[in-house]
């Protein structure tokens, strides 16, 4: 329905968002703009303050080479608005944009799961003989946002359906309003009445046929004599089908669609989002007007 189409459009919008990754070309050391949908496991992504995380990643380096600390906001994942500190991997926290491209190694980690607060893995760089352990403090999730950190570099571990965000998502529930429940009950009653009317009509038809068989054969013909019992049921069902308001459900959905348009374009339901955040270059940010969204048009009737 309409909600499914809107979810599809939202998925397309998310997949088309852009992020910076290190150009995989061997002779290039530049950043490359890539769609979230094109980000692959093993890509090294650069995030700046305020950027959303496009995939589950392990932090390799930040703007703080001493501590390697970055702060992320996970309100979209767990509802907590407080910032969580994360750390770059010990063996790579001092690396820079120019040196990360030349690093070669292997990350071994657990299979995809839905656990938001745990992660276990190891990093083995070719230049070091030992493995470095990786845990949840080095791991940032898709759906979180980088805060109070100038930049960080992270290597992609899980993408798409393997991310923690997707693993914790649930199929949307089919929500029904009071009007829809009432309409379904009325349709059930109408269907029951229709069945009773067809049964009574068929019974009366049999009574008439038993008394006047010649009249029935005159109108029906010998060819339908064998199937006349089923034909009577089908005939009366077709005659009485106008009793069922088939267009009622379509009309209700159309009205809800129009209601959703009015709700989303009502200026009385808009608000200006908080204090404008400064841009990356320090320039004043622009305020954002947030409009109401009718995410489930089925519930418009209950407002």
From TrEMBL:
| A GO molecular-function descriptor | ATPase-coupled intramembrane lipid transporter activity
The biased composition feature labelled Basic and acidic residues covers 87-98
**Listed InterPro entries:** ATPase_P-typ_TM_dom_sf (IPR023298), ATPase_P-typ_transduc_dom_A_sf (IPR008250), ATPase_P-type_domA (IPR059000)
Q: What keywords were assigned to this record?
A: Membrane, Transmembrane, Transmembrane helix
CC annotations in GO: plasma membrane
Q: Name one GO biological process term.
A: phospholipid translocation
Q: Which domain of life is it from?
A: Eukaryota
Q: Which organism is it from?
A: Vitrella brassicaformis
Pfam families, per this entry? E1-E2_ATPase
Tell me where the transmembrane regions lie. Answer: 183-206, 233-255
Q: Has the keyword Repeat been applied to this entry?
A: no
Domain P-type ATPase A, by residue range, is 29-135
The name on file for this protein is: P-type ATPase A domain-containing protein
Which residue stretches belong to region Disordered? 87-107
């Amino acid at each position: 329905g309409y909600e499914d189409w809107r979810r599809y459009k939202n998925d397309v919008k998310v997949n088309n968002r852009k992020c910076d990754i290190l150009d995989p070309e061997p002779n290039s050391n530049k950043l490359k703009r890539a769609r979230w949908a094109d980000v692959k496991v093993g890509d090294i992504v650069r995030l700046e303050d305020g950027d959303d995380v496009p995939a589950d990643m392990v932090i390799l380096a930040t703007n703080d080479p001493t501590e390697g600390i970055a702060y992320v906001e996970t309100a979209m994942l767990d509802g907590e608005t407080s910032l969580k500190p994360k750390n770059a991997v010990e063996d790579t926290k001092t690396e820079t944009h120019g040196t990360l491209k030349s690093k070669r190694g292997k990350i071994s980690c657990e299979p995809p799961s839905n656990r938001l607060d745990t992660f276990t893995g190891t990093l083995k760089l070719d230049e070091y003989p030992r493995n470095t352990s990786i845990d949840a403090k080095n791991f940032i999730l898709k759906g979180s946002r980088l805060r109070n950190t100038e930049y960080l570099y992270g290597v992609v571990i899980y993408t798409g359906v393997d991310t923690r965000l997707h693993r914790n998502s649930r199929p949307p529930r089919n929500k029904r309003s009071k009007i829809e429940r009432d309409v379904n009950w009325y349709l059930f009653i109408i269907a029951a009445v229709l069945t009773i009317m067809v049964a009574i009509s068929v019974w009366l038809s049999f009574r008439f046929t038993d008394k006047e068989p010649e009249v029935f054969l005159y109108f029906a013909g010998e060819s339908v004599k064998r199937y006349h019992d089923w034909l009577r049921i089908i005939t009366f069902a077709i005659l009485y089908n106008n009793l069922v308001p088939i267009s009622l459900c379509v009309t209700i959905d159309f009205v809800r669609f129009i209601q959703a348009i009015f709700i989303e374009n009502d200026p009385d339901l808009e608000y200006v989002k908080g204090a404008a955040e400064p841009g990356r270059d320090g320039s004043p940010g622009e305020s954002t007007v947030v409009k109401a969204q009718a995410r489930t048009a089925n519930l418009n009737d209950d407002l």
